[in-house]
Amino acid sequence: MDTGYLRSLKHSLLGDPAGRLVLVCNFEAEDRWACHHVGLPNPGFAAASNVVRRMEELGVLLAGADDLLICKYPLDPGYRGYLDRIGLPVPEIAVPENVAPSRSTTEDVLDSPALLARLAALGAAGARLLPMATTDLEQKLAESCGLPLAVPDAAVFERVNGKIYGRRLTASAGLRVVPGDECETCDELAAVLDRRRPALAAGQRIVVKDAYGVSGKGLLVLDGPVKADRLLRMIRRRAERTGDDRLHVVVEEWLPKRYDLNYQVTVARDGEVRLDFVKRALTDGGVHQGHVMPAGLTDAQHAEIDHAARLVGARLRDDGYTGVVGVDAIVDLDDVVYPVLEINARLNMSTYQGSLTELCQAPGQVALARHYPLTLTAAVPFAEFDRTIATLVDPAGSDRVIVTCFGTVNADAAQPPPFNGRLYALLVAADPVRLAALDDAVRTALAGRFTATDPSTGSQAATGRSGTGQPAVTELSRTASRSATTPEVSP
Q: What spans are recorded as compositionally biased (Polar residues) (predicted)?
């Protein structure tokens, strides 16, 4: 039986809460869209790492028992048994018969006739393809095997996911916009930087973002006129060399913030717009680190997010988009909500957590979804992590630590040691203090057992700390909030 969260999603995407999905979790979607736009001068987005590719296993948390999840490699048997043991409906995993390490999973499928034939049969039986986001590759996959998309085509996704589009949507909807500008040519950026020169000279920071940057890639913070001038010179030289004056970036003031938020909106095929949940997001240098649930908002703040969600969803619907939308927001130091920092019209990290929190987070409990960086000298069996984590919680208590993605731990095990990995987990506790203590205990346990000594320095690599060296979660506001009592999704 699917969770209420998944049934609700299927009803929105398919019109049938019992419909069948074929999922492919293409985390590298933004890289494909960015190919058609000109961003900041840099070596370019690096190819997706093995660790990022193995994040596709997060789809196990979302897909139902009757769904099919396509992964580049089989699920670790020990981890599969663990998911069965904790009661999560685990989908069937399909692996392409032809796999190349440097290709995306979708490219592997397109080169795998046996799997293509199976997908064609599923499509004929009514299944639909749900990618994390549609690029030209997923559209080609859907068309080549007759497995219709559950979401719009690549052109719609690319159009509505750019940061320039997002800023303009926010302004036209009458929502509070982070002060800034959209630039589509070198001259436009030059004019913006010239106008902001006095502020830069006075110490104000601004951030320049690629229209299709993600997770800290394609982001540059300017803290003075010298750095701004250097950036502009690089952009001018590139334009002269290529004969192309295009530039797709946004420039925004760097706002001191109290915390980040992430909320999910679903735009259904029948036009309904629904706010699914609001979470407090943990970020470090623009890179996503995790989520805390509930977000600890006041009623007024939640109402403002709800209002923004409905406006954003309606505008996206009018522009031809249906599906899941993740919206980043911030609350500044004066508790002012900026409800749209970025629009990610695709499945998001928080999307994959919905069924698990429904099953494992009881009313009144708080939860943290995050990853723990690891430095290893050899592949580690899942059983070792299972035993280590089991020592941290009382089996008779309500606190829990649930591993949500294990393939990312040993993804680079073929590389010369030491190699880096990540363990993804969901932590659940009775209150914020216990949650922070549990997070610290997990971090300490992992560092003690699974952190290698770097032979080049003789020192141990830090495990699980943010770039500031601080724990990833601190005590949340105890203010009673609407989000703390309202289910994430109504079945």
A: 453-491
